[in-house]
Amino acid sequence: MGKIKKIILDTIESHPLHKAWLKLAEQLAKDAGVEVEVKKEDYVFAITHGDTDDLGMAWLPQLFAELEDGSIKLILSQFPFDPKTTQPDPEEALRQAREKLREISGDP
């Protein structure tokens, strides 16, 4: 599709996994050699570009990529949990996000 221009994290600092989301965004940006933009509680942005519930309301955090053409693509809207431990799984989150970035950028 296009080259990644930046990683955008739309977050809420009081979320229990805020730091895990931030770390994920920073790692993806480092991998791609781009900057991270952190939006704080920008629900309009999340509703416009992210996942929403059946009433059209978005939740935070959600992670996005901005492409060179200005389009915004959703990378991840829910942090994965390990089914065995029921704990957040940062490694799986990174794997899923990297896979989505490959799809977005058109890399095999």
Label this structure with key terms:
108 residues, 3 helices, globular
Number of helices: 3
Number of domains: 1
The CATH topology, please?
A: Glutaredoxin
* Alpha-carbon Rg, integer: 13 Å
Query: Helix coverage percent of residues?
Result: 25-40%
User: What's the level 1 CATH class?
Assistant: Alpha Beta
Structural class: alpha+beta
Q: N- to C-terminal separation?
A: 12 Å
Placed side by side, the strands forming the largest sheet appear as 2-1-3-4
Walk me through the structure:
The protein is α+β, with helices and mostly antiparallel strands and 108 residues long. The chain has a single domain, classed as 3-Layer(aba) Sandwich (Glutaredoxin). It has helices at 18-32, 43-49, 90-105, and strands spanning 4-11, 35-40, 62-67, 72-76. The protein has a 4-stranded mixed sheet with strand order 2-1-3-4, with helices on both faces. Helix 1 (18-32) crosses helix 3 (90-105). The longest helix is centred in the last third of the chain and has 16 residues, at 90-105. The model has no long low-confidence stretch (mean pLDDT 95).
What's this model, at a glance?
The chain has three helices and four strands; from the N terminus they run E-H-E-H-E-E-H. It has 108 residues and is an alpha+beta fold.
Structural topology:
Layout (H helix, E strand, L loop, with lengths): L3 E8 L6 H15 L2 E6 L2 H7 L12 E6 L4 E5 L13 H16 L3
Parallel strand pairs: 1-2
Antiparallel strand pairs: 1-3, 3-4
Helix pairs in contact: 1-3
